[in-house]
Amino acid sequence: MQQIASSSSAVREGGLKSVLQRFPFVPALIILVALVALNGFFEPRSLSFGSITGLVSTYLALMLLAVAQTYVVYAGDIDLSVGAIVSLVNVVIIVLMEKWGGGGLTVLAACLVGVLTGIACGVVNGIMIAGLRLQAIVATFATSIFFTGLALYVLPVAGTPAPEAYWLTYGGTYFGIPFVFYVVAAVALVLGILARMRLSTQLLAVGDDAMAAFQSGLPVTLIRIKGYVLCGLFSALAALCVTGDTASGDPLVGGKMTLYSVAAVVLGGSALSGGAGTVTGSVIGALIIGLINSLVFFVGTPSEWQNLVQGLAILIALMAGVLVSRGARA
Fold first, then answer.
1. For residue 238, is it within any domain?
2. Cα distance between residue 195 and residue 83, in whole Å
3. 46 close to 40: Cβ distance less than 8 angstroms
4. Is the pLDDT of residue 5 over 70?
5. CATH of the domain at 287
């Protein structure tokens, strides 16, 4: 009987490890559900459709930035310039829309230039890190300062408003569905396509063992550069969302978002050492951060204590997720 019990326990443990290895975001999903329940308990109206729409609208930029960070983390890299890229793209599109008149076509043209700006930043990071073999954490810290300087040059003072057509579209409702949910659906489609491409698998292979990937014939340098290009692309998309949410330009708007994006990636079950993770987990991690911030407000935490409580809550969530994921990989 004891042998049967021990064998069944081993099977359950092995099954749990198998699930966590295949879906590393499961611990984060459990934390997310718990936070949704707690938010609903302390503020029932937080579960209304309008409140959920507001949450998605506010934290969609962080979700996209977490996705951006994930693609470089796949390969064992990191990007500390994503927040600066958000700031740079934000001011570029604001200034262009102001100069070009703010009409429908000019808004689209400005957004396209903004996306190309983000991609260009990704190319710069990729060449410096993968091509010139600089340390990712040092190189992207340097480029973050450079990109922030460019943003301040483009728009020295915050406050330039976005055209009405832009922020009304972002905050609008079409056919009874808020515009942000169309954006979420479009991003989900793009992420689904990227997940089925070889690039995602190649990035994970490089992160797992770069030397083995090189010996198997993979162009490791080019793959890492492509990872940074994707990071720049999604950082630019995050900037478009920030601009729609704030309806203004600010050369420092993305400053605090960089470390939040790293935290979201880790919360989602990705390994900063590379080779393991999912973009789904990173999106969940970003939502966890958003729900923690909401919960701290709903429980009535004094304003002078809110940052402390938020940081402590995120730290506890990080510790729980990392310990469970580490146990699954053991």
1. yes
2. 24
3. yes
4. no
5. 1.10.3470
